[in-house]
């Protein structure tokens, strides 16, 4: 199965180039879709409990969490991929991991060292890679259909790549962005 992934990417790239000149792969028809009436939500689980996290999502009306961590594992109980998906399912909220929208290793290293400028440069370059574009296209389609929330670790969206993804999605999908904070259940800024 793993061998099919590159072929899919090549097909998607060539397909997008051949029938929609000037449009990047993953951005094919989202502008033609009806504009969604709901915002793109973002949330970080740093400092949160699972209950507070789910409460914030419920209060905001989120239907689907888009986990955009490169590696969906956490030392914080309940926030690794499978336990989180289970908690969300029990709460009636969907879960989808979009690995291509995660920060690559070099970007994570730059962020850890406090080099935000390099982190942002690395991540913005990564967003032009085929896997990222395909996952971005999927995220745009999902966000057009229902209220989604981009998930990562950092509480402060200004310190997280999810803000860059949300801004790109907002621009492409013509939707506003709302940041959720799990420790203040459902408050929006």
Give a concise summary.
Helix content is 45%, strand content 13%. The protein is an alpha/beta fold and 189 residues long.
SSE topology sketch:
Layout: H1 4-19, E1 40-44, H2 50-60, E2 64-67, H3 81-90, E3 94-97, H4 105-112, H5 116-126, H6 130-145, E4 148-152, H7 161-173, E5 177-181, E6 187-188
Parallel strand pairs: 1-4, 1-5, 2-3, 2-4
Antiparallel strand pairs: 5-6
Helix pairs in contact: 4-5, 6-7
Describe this structure in words.
With 189 residues, the protein is an alpha/beta fold. It has a single domain (38-188), classed as 3-Layer(aba) Sandwich (Cobalt-precorrin-4 Transmethylase, domain 1). 45% of the residues lie in helices and 13% in strands. The protein is built from 7 helices and 6 strands. A 6-stranded mixed beta sheet has the order 3-2-4-1-5-6, sandwiched between helices. The longest helix has 16 residues, at 4-19. Mean pLDDT is 84; it is low at 1-23, 26-34 and 185-189.
**For the terminal residues, how far apart are their CA atoms?**
42 Å
Q: Overall 3D geometry? A: globular
The CATH C-level name is Alpha Beta
Number of helices: 7
Strand order of the largest sheet: 3-2-4-1-5-6
- Strand percent estimate: 5-15%
Contiguous low-pLDDT stretches (5 residues minimum) are 1-23, 26-34, 185-189
Radius of gyration: 16 Å
The tally of strands reads 6
The averaged pLDDT comes out at: 84
CATH topology: Cobalt-precorrin-4 Transmethylase, domain 1
> What level of helicity do the residues show?
40-55%
Order of helices and strands: HEHEHEHHHEHEE
| CATH architectural category | 3-Layer(aba) Sandwich
Report on the biggest sheet: 6 strands, mixed
- The tally of structural domains comes to 1
Structural class: alpha/beta
